[in-house]
Structures are given as C-alpha cells and as structure tokens.
Amino acid sequence: MNVAVGLLHWRSIIEILVLWAAVYSIFLFLKGTKAAYLLRGTFILMVSLMIFQLLGFPVLTRLLAYFFAFFLIFVVIIFQPELREGLIRLGRRHFFYIEPKKEEIEQALKEIVSAAAELSKNKIGALIALRRQMVLKGYIESGIMLNADLSAELLQNIFFPATPLHDGGVIIEGGKVSAASCLFPLSENTNLAKNLGMRHRAALGLSEHSDALVVVVSEENGSISLAINGQLTQELKAQDLLTILRGQMSKNA
Amino acid sequence: MKIFEKINIKKALTHNIWLKIASLIIAIIIWLYVSGEISRGVHI
C-alpha cells in the first residue's frame, strides 16, 4: 500500500523516468549486438533473485546474489570493448529525432542510387554511408572533410580509381557529402562469406557500430550490396536499392 | 526556435515503441523492488 502511494509521488515519478531513460539507453546499446544475449541472462538472474526473495528462500537468494555479483564483474571484463563502444554510442545518439527534409532525402537517395548504378556498370568499387540518427563524427574526422553538395557525378568522381579520395568510404548527411576517404570499422563477424572483401567488411562494420545505411559496390563483379544493422543484402538492382533505402529512411523518419 | 519546429514528438514517442514500453515496465519493476526493500529497512 505504502509503495502504491509512493508510486504516485512526484519524486517517485522522476525516479522512474530516470530509470526508464537508463534502461532504454542500455537496450538501445545492446540492440542487435551479441551482448543482447547477455541481457537476457542478466534479466533471468534478476527476476529469479526477486522471486526467491519475495517467496522467502534465504539460502537461494544469498547464493544467487553472490553469483550475480561475480557475474557482473565477468560481464565487465569480457564485454569491455562492447561496453566502451556502447558508452561512446550513447553519447552520440539524439534522444529526440529531428526530422530532415523529405525532398532533400529523396534527392540524395536518387543521387546515391544513380552513382551506385553507374559505378556498378563500370565495376568501380565504392563505399557510401548514409547517416540516419546517429552522429558519425568520429568516422568523418578519419577522412577528408568535403561538405559538398551531393551529386551522382561527385560520387563517381570520388571513387574513380587512382584519385586521391577513392580509398575508404564516403559519408553523406542530408544532402551533403560530409567527408570522403573515411575509415570504417571492420566487421568481426566470423560467419561472413570468404569472398567478401575489406570493403564489404567495412560496410558491415559501420552498420554494426551505427544505424547508418551503407551501400557497397564491388569492384570485382560490380554487384551492389546494402548493409543495415549488421546485415548485408547482396546483388541488388538499382531500383531495389532505391526502394529499400526509401523504406529505411521513411521508417527512420 | 526552428529546432523545436523540427522535433516531431509523435515520431519521437512511437519510434522503437516496444523497446520503450519494455524498458518502462522494467524501470517500474526495479523501482518497486528497491523502494519495497527500502521501506522494509533492508540495506541493498
């Protein structure tokens, strides 16, 4: 009864809202990563602990509490790289979504698809990341800042072999090419096909570390692929690519 | 205040809606558990 009354107090509401923001941030950080399985394990342990305590099993409660304490230490040690990356990601993420102009996005998508189709036809390798909610500042800083108006011709020019900016990836934000020759993190996914090169691994890596949409054109066979949230869709036709990109961007909006 | 015009509250709330609901439920469970322990005088 006291707890129920306490729940309605303004201080309690603020406490719950703060807890909610913290839990939601943790979920966002773990979403789509291998640490998500860990969350399930932690959740089961927590619920078991609460049930044992509520039902009055002192020995099981104490044992589980000890185990839980050790478990948390192991988690911090084993998942140290993921935790570090997650904390960085949390800092970069906007809590409220700021809607970009639809016309600007539509035009940008058309330019990207047009460039990808042309590069594919000429079997020129390309790596193009399209920013969504998460800020890609760290990756932009790893390349050459451009802040140029986006056009298919510009993208084709950037990726033309033997030009200074053709190595690495391009990052697009809204209707601008923010940077070229950017370094993307390589995916550590061990289940990837052996025929996928570094460009595809970089595309997957960035899509694992951020919510960006990453378009890859293979220089070996000219095929177009798209990486979203650590998943690679290969052998896309230009029209299919445009449809998927539109869908993803409107879902995002 | 152009920034506020751009913020779409409805979309901000409905984006990842199930994740938001699940985290709210878990936040309430944690709060109930901890406040229950505090009111019982248990040191957590």
SSE arrangement of chain A, N to C: HHHHHHEHEHEEHEEEH
What would you call the shape of chain B?
Answer: rod-shaped
- What is the strand tally of chain A? 7
Widest β-sheet, arrangement of strands of chain A: 2-4-3-1-5-6-7
The total of helices of chain B stands at 3
Please provide a brief summary of the model.
In chain A, 56% of the residues lie in helices and 15% in strands. Chain A has 253 residues and is an alpha+beta fold. In chain A, a hairpin with a 2-residue loop joins strand 3 and strand 4.
Give the topology.
The complex is a heterodimer of chains A (253) and B (44).
Chain A: H1 2-7, H2 10-30, H3 35-55, H4 58-78, H5 80-92, H6 102-121, E1 126-130, H7 137-141, E2 144-149, H8 152-159, E3 169-173, E4 176-182, H9 198-209, E5 213-217, E6 224-228, E7 231-236, H10 238-252
Parallel strand pairs in A: 1-3
Antiparallel strand pairs in A: 1-5, 2-4, 3-4, 5-6, 6-7
Chain B: H1 2-6, H2 9-14, H3 17-39
Using brief descriptors, characterize the structure shown:
heterodimer; A: alpha+beta; 7-stranded mixed β-sheet; 7 strands; B: 44 residues; mainly alpha
What does this structure look like?
The complex is a heterodimer of chains A (253) and B (44). Chain A has 253 residues and is α+β, with helices and mostly antiparallel strands. Chain A has helices at 2-7, 10-30, 35-55, 58-78, 80-92, 102-121, 137-141, 152-159, 198-209, 238-252, and strands at residues 126-130, 144-149, 169-173, 176-182, 213-217, 224-228, 231-236. Chain A has a 7-stranded mixed β-sheet with strand order 2-4-3-1-5-6-7, with helices on both faces. In chain A, strand 5 and strand 6 (224-228) form a beta hairpin. The longest helix of chain A has 21 residues, at 10-30. By secondary structure, chain B is mainly α. Chain B has 3 helices and no strands. Chain B has helices spanning 2-6, 9-14, 17-39. Chains A and B meet through helix 1 and helix 2 of A and helix 2 and helix 3 of B.
